[in-house]
Structures are given as structure tokens and as C-alpha cells.
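I am writing to request your help with a piece of structural work I have in hand. I set the record out below, with my sincere thanks for your time.
___
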Amino acid sequence: MNLKDKKVIITGSTGGIGNSLVQKFYENGSIILATGTNEEKLNKLKKTFSNIFIEKFKLDEHEKIESFIDNSYKQLNGLDILINNAGITLDNLSIRLS
């Protein structure tokens, strides 16, 4: 599969799987918008893969999803691939166990 110049959004890019996905698509010449909730990790990702776009975004902010899609589409000048890799881990939950 030729991924060169494919426009890709990868959610959850700052975690292990997301980071590996960014690396593979980057190595194959894709145009990447990497998202995540940790700005420090996004900036580190940008330093490692200088030609990617980054954006701090939380998928559970439902009221912001449509504007995120519109802005992403404009920023990438289209979209070919969406990888929904974002998830919630126990360290991100604020649950009090009784």
C-alpha cells in the first residue's frame, strides 16, 4: 500500500501504539495530524517527527468534535485516513473505589 502523501489523523498519538503509528506513517511519507491530551508529549512527538502537525484534543469533549473535524480537514487539505486510537486508561480515570 502506498501511503506517501496520504493525509492521516491519528488520535491517541502520544501513547505507545499511537506513537508507533505516527512513526510508521511518517516513514512512509504520510501527512500526519497527531492528537492527544498531553501537550508535553505532543511537543516531544513534534520534535521527533518535525513535519507532522499536532493538536491537543480530547475526544470526550463532544461539543468540540465538529470544529475539530472542520479545522483538521482544512489544515491537512483533505483527509484520507482516520485512526481512532484514543482511549481511556486507569491512570486517566478519577474513580474512587469504596
